[in-house]
What does this fold into?
Amino acid sequence: MKTYSISKKNILKSSKLLDKVFTCGKKISSSTCSLYYLNTKSEEDFRVAFSVGKKTHNLAVNRNKIKRFMREAFRLNREKYGVSSCDMVFVFFDKDIPTYEKVENSIKSLLLSLSKTFES
It folds into this structure.
């Protein structure tokens, strides 16, 4: 049975790398999320980070809930879209607290767009 977990080596934490993704990377947007990505073109696996703004969601409980939804949607769908060798940052910008289905659809559309850009 395959495991779909995100290991610690796949989490993007370094502020230098995060700044590099935001400044040098490209952006794809959907209705509720944006994806900033930077192709690393190496043998490394993917690295990912998730962000929800304080200005749109004041309570940490709500921000953490949305980030859990985003992580779970990414974890379940990354194998399907063949994500590898890039650094990614998912940013949630909608003002409402979404359902899991809404977040999952947004993540799926972003991953599909990302896989299409890597194919071409």
